[in-house]
């Protein structure tokens, strides 16, 4: 059968298929290392562990790598567009200015790569104008929590959870916020040793915009909470409600459990305490475990009855904010959050989630201080301003209650 398309059509149609971007590297004795950008990478087999990619027959770099018999595949992060371009160039020294460290097999792991896969050459076949290279995997690791770089229709991009993309009109304004605070989110997660999330609300929903730290990391194997959507009802998003506008807060507080008797007036006291202190504490292993289970098992609707029941238990812990005035006391803290004030007056919240069952007073205070510092830093970074009465980052004491 004769071919019914032009090379341009071939490229254009195949360009509809998005790929990740890797850099295949090797150390070359007596020269600087060799590397080339590859979009045609894929996993092949688990037993034995094999991966593959297709370098062009015209590549000057591939024969050098092949001669070493080993290589390292570096998965590039979403911010690595410039690196991707350098490694796709014909530059004599593609590693000029690039920092790296050796893989177990000695090949370069580019600093900041999302993950690396250390291989030896298992098989090379010629297929048309490309080689098929099969690599046998000897070692591999996820190295960072960054999102990977994607290549699609000739342009670069990044992965966006469909749940975020779905309500893009409501959330679009928050995406630059995520970018701006990502580094701070990661340091807070590292320093406090747990997951740190950024969340915002729309009229009816509380949405986790970004996450860093253990649960959110790919190493943990647990599904990320990024993209999670919950009803914006008390106690979800207490930090947002504390600095939210009045009509929103009425709806938020009047909602969850009409039989509980609490409503705007009871929440009024909690929200003003939160405004004085600058943070919210959520406690109790059981209520949080039940809430997580209800979220995992809920049917599609946002306000699933089991979830509302579980939220009502979490609510009780929020209504009773501990004073932190007894130094040798321990707390079963599950969440801690602070507001970040945006230039346009909106508020997002940064929060630690999944903390230890028993936290000493000192650890809780450390995490609160770190979060308050992050709140100031991110607010300044985003051109927002803290309310005049927003607490300085000092130790909370009994007089706060
Ligand atoms: C996003 C992207 C994906 C690429 N994927 C491949 C690929 O799968 N195979 C390939 O041979 N070249 C691919 N290239 C082009 C090579 O990186 C480039 O031709 C090569 O680095 C040229 O240098 P060399 O002659 O030193 O090998 C890709 C380039 C980019 C920007």
UniProtKB/TrEMBL annotation:
InterPro entries registered for this protein in UniProt: Flavin_Rdtase-like_dom, GAF-like_dom_sf, NADH-dep_flavin_reductase, Split_barrel_FMN-bd, Tscrpt_reg_IclR_C
Keyword Oxidoreductase belongs to the record: yes
Signal peptide: none
Gene Ontology MF term list: FMN binding; riboflavin reductase (NADPH) activity
Family matches, as PROSITE patterns: ICLR_ED
Pfam families in UniProt: Flavin_Reduct (PF01613)
The entry's keywords: Oxidoreductase
Domain annotation IclR-ED: ranges: 162-384
Family, per entry: Belongs to the non-flavoprotein flavin reductase family.
The protein's name in its UniProt record: IclR-ED domain-containing protein
């Amino acid at each position: 059968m004769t071919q019914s398309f032009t090379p341009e059509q071939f490229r254009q149609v195949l360009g509809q298929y998005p790929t990740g971007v890797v850099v295949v590297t090797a150390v070359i004795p007596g020269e600087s290392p060799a590397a080339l950008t590859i979009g045609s990478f894929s996993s092949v087999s688990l037993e034995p562990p094999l991966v593959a990619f297709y370098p062009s027959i015209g590549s000057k770099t591939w024969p050098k790598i092949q001669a070493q018999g080993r290589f390292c595949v570096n998965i590039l992060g979403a911010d690595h567009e410039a690196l991707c371009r350098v490694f796709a160039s014909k530059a004599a020294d593609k590693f000029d200015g690039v920092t790296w460290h050796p893989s177990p097999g000695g090949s370069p792991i580019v600093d900041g790569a999302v993950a690396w896969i250390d291989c030896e050459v298992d098989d090379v076949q010629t297929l048309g104008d490309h080689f098929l290279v099969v690599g046998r995997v000897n070692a591999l690791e996820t190295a960072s929590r960054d999102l990977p770089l994607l290549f699609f229709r000739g342009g670069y991009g990044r992965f966006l959870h469909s749940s975020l993309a779905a309500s893009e009109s409501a959330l679009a304004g928050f995406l630059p916020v995520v970018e701006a605070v990502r580094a701070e989110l990661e340091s807070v997660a590292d320093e406090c040793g747990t997951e740190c999330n950024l969340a915002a609300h729309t009229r009816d929903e509380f949405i986790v915009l970004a996450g860093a730290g253990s649960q959110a990391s790919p190493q943990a194997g647990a599904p990320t909470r990024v993209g999670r959507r919950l009803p914006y009802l008390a106690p979800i998003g207490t930090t947002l409600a504390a600095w939210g506008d009045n009509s929103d807060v009425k709806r938020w507080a009047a909602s969850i459990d009409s039989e509980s008797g609490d409503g705007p007036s009871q929440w009024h006291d909690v929200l003003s305490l939160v405004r004085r202190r600058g943070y919210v504490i959520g406690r109790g292993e059981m209520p949080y475990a039940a809430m997580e289970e209800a979220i995992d098992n809920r049917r599609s609707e946002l306000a699933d009855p089991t979830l509302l029941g579980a939220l009502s238990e979490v609510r009780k812990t929020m209504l009773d904010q501990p004073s932190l005035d007894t130094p040798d006391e321990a707390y079963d803290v599950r969440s801690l959050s602070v507001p970040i004030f945006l230039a346009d007056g909106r508020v997002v919240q940064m929060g630690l989630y999944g903390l230890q069952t028993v936290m000493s007073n000192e650890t809780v205070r450390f995490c609160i201080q770190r979060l308050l510092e992050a709140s100031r830093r991110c607010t300044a970074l985003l051109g927002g301003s803290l309310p005049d009465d927003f607490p300085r980052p000092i130790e909370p004491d009994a007089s706060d209650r």
